[in-house]
Design a protein that fits this description.
This protein has 14 helices and twelve strands. The chain is α/β, with parallel strands linked by helices and 332 residues long. The relative contact order is 0.14. The structure holds glyoxylic acid (2 copies). The site of one glyoxylic acid has 6 residues, from loops. Pfam families: 2-Hacid_dh, 2-Hacid_dh_C.
């Protein structure tokens, strides 16, 4: 008998077909995420879960679903999973690092450029028929090339953005991270490690790419925004909650900050109403990794992880990216 697996949202049909070769599948066919209660009900008797970032796994869910063995997240960020609780319950969790690095960095750069150069504001201006004339100061924005980029959180994506900034746009790159990069990673992107306060004070453009956790909750709040240049921009492609959206909206409204590019929001898909009113905020619906190739790669990698984590397929017992490999050790 095939093990039972739950898929929390629809994904590519070919990925579902691959999963169906190994598992008896139940797929959420709705065009919305299940509520926590629905998820718990559907997860009964399932050994595996193909999890999209629209649902969460916590200790209460694990207690209620004792058959669960593997949770494969279709995302690199895994703040939707209580990993220590999974480990305590003997549940393996996996994510999808690496495959989305470059496309997410591209999008972060696009958002930063759009915010600095008032791209969406200019487009709204044109489409609404307000473009009646040329004037010397129409839609003047902020320079990007040859300015200073501040990267907050220097993981894979942060490094990919720093490379674009340094090699492509002649920017100086400063960064802050829990730990400093080894010299062989710093050197090619000419990135300079600084304290958080110096990062905020010196950067012309701040790129937030730090994972969300209890420690990074509101890591960029009113006090941090107050340190930044009035001419600076802030781009968040990490997670809602790393930036205090209400404080950011205040700073943007009062022009204590020039502009922001935001792909992620606290409590998304709800967006802070004050942000929606602001011309100097470029807002996108959590799509930084959304290219056809990258989403296929993420979906495929989550499937690889689930199949291998469940002890099936050529990689049985050796999933590509376990978050709590100690669980595998206890199984072996
Ligand atoms: C998307 O936000 C991801 O974490 O992959
Ligand atoms: C702008 O279009 C310029 O030619 O400077």
């Amino acid at each position: 008998m095939k093990p039972k697996v739950l898929v929390t949202r629809k994904v590519f049909p070919e990925v579902l077909e691959r999963l169906a070769e190994h598992f008896e599948l139940e797929v959420n066919e709705l065009d919305r995420p299940w509520t926590a209660d629905e998820l718990r009900a559907h997860l009964q008797g399932k050994q595996g879960m193909y999890l999209t970032p629209t649902n969460s796994v916590d200790a209460a869910l694990l207690d209620a679903c004792p058959d669960l063995k593997v949770v494969a997240n279709m995302a690199v960020g895994y703040n939707n999973i209580d990993v220590p609780a999974c480990t305590a319950h003997g549940v393996l969790c996996t994510n999808t690092p690496g495959v989305l690095t470059e496309s997410t960095a591209d999008f972060g750069f696009a958002l930063m450029l759009a915010a600095a150069r008032r791209l969406t504001e200019s487009e709204r201006f044109l489409r609404s028929g307000q473009w009646a004339n040329w004037s010397f100061d129409m839609m003047m924005g902020r320079e990007v090339h040859a300015t200073t980029l501040g990267v907050f959180g220097m993981g894979r994506i942060g490094q990919a953005i720093a490379r674009r900034a340094s090699l492509g746009f002649g920017m100086q790159v400063i960064y802050h991270n829990r730990s400093r990069l080894p010299a062989e990673l710093e050197e090619p992107i000419k990135a300079r490690y600084v304290g958080k306060e110096q990062l905020l004070r010196e950067c012309d453009h701040l790129m937030v790419v730090v994972p969300y956790s209890a420690e990074t909750h509101h890591a960029i709040g009113a006090a941090e925004l107050a340190l930044m240049k009035r001419t600076a921009t802030l781009t968040n492609i990490a997670r809602g909650g790393v930036v205090d959206d209400a404080a950011l909206a205040e700073a943007l409204k009062e022009r204590r900050l020039a502009a922001a590019g935001l792909d992620v929001f606290e409590g998304e898909p709800h967006v802070h109403p004050a942000l929606l009113e602001l011309p100097n905020a470029v807002l996108t619906p959590h799509v930084a990794s959304a290219t056809v190739r990258t989403r296929r790669a993420m979906a495929g990698m989550a499937a690889d992880n689930l199949i291998a984590g469940m002890g099936c397929g050529p990689l049985a017992g050796r999933p590509p990216s376990p978050l709590n490999p100690e669980v595998l050790a206890t199984r072996a």
